[in-house]
Amino acid sequence: MSQTSEHRSLSVPESLAGERVDAALARMFGLSRTRAADLIAQGLVQVDGAGVGKSDRVLPGSLLDVEIPTLTDPLTVTPEIVEGIKIVHDDESIVVIDKPVGVAVHPSPGWTGPTVVGHLAGAGFRIATSGASERQGIVQRLDVGTSGVMVICKSEHAYSVLKNAFRHRTVDKTYHALVQGHPDPLEGTVDAPIGRHPRSDWKFAVMADGRASVTHYETLEAHRFASLLEVHLETGRTHQIRVHMSALKHPCVGDLTYGADPVLAKRVGLERQWLHAVRLGFEHPDTGEHVEYETEYPADLAHALEVVRDGS
């Protein structure tokens, strides 16, 4: 929960003379006795300008000052237009977007930045699907630090159909990744389970007891310092491509979290991993026909790739 606070002051009435501070606070401000005691313990309550203990007694006419934090739910969707989100396709059932770096798909504890669902709400899109309110219409995710194409469902029918398609791996998810060095072989499959990193809570790793994860890759361009890969995901684990490439000792350029060279990252001007969701293909939930949507590399990735090409 994030917090703002409200300051309130009241004089103690005759009827509460001699009451404990926590009891008087609860009665005067409509709080539970437990919440009142918590506020006193946090030093947010004063009587006549001085701090108090919860069992102190109040006198009539004393001024009771209290800072009451208002709790805001971190999962609340805040409608706001997010600069950089492009609408690739929009119809009655789905909206396909090009997500920029630095935008989360939906609200989550600890994230206070912009979100895709917040942008769609701010732009007037009506998302009518089941699921938690902050994740309505969401059938796939992209990391905050990963850009590219993704689909959001607007209708319950589309949500149900596409959720199943992602679950049964019938969606074509194509990424381009610029990785350090040259994978050997030049094309192949990484089939290695992924789980939470044993020592770093925000990271993932190849773990024997992790969830099944399959990544197919092929080399599109080989340069002196790095290779541009086309990657097809069979599964959709968090950080999957980043973890698998790091496990091959070919981390995504700029991905300092997973072992990338900071000198190379600086040289190509990257402050995030070089990873972009370029293409998404699936059966349209209404027509059943195969549709495919593509996005171009954003400016930072395009620039980094040119630097690598020039260095070959």
TrEMBL record:
PROSITE patterns: PSI_RLU (PS01129), S4 (PS50889). Coiled coil: none annotated. Pfam families: PseudoU_synth_2, S4. This is Pseudouridine synthase. Residues 19-76 form the RNA-binding S4 domain. It catalyses: a uridine in RNA = a pseudouridine in RNA. Transmembrane segments: none annotated. Belongs to the pseudouridine synthase RluA family. The keyword Signal does not apply. It is an enzyme of class 5 (isomerase). SMART domains: S4 (SM00363). The keyword Transcription does not apply. It comes from the Bacteria. SUPFAM superfamilies: Alpha-L RNA-binding motif, Pseudouridine synthase. Its EC number is 5.4.99.-. Responsible for synthesis of pseudouridine from uracil. InterPro entries: PsdUridine_synth_cat_dom_sf, PsdUridine_synth_RluA-like_CS, PsdUridine_synth_RluC/D, PsdUridine_synth_RsuA/RluA, RluA_PseudoU_synthase, S4_RNA-bd, S4_RNA-bd_sf. It comes from Nocardioides kribbensis. Keywords: Isomerase, RNA-binding.
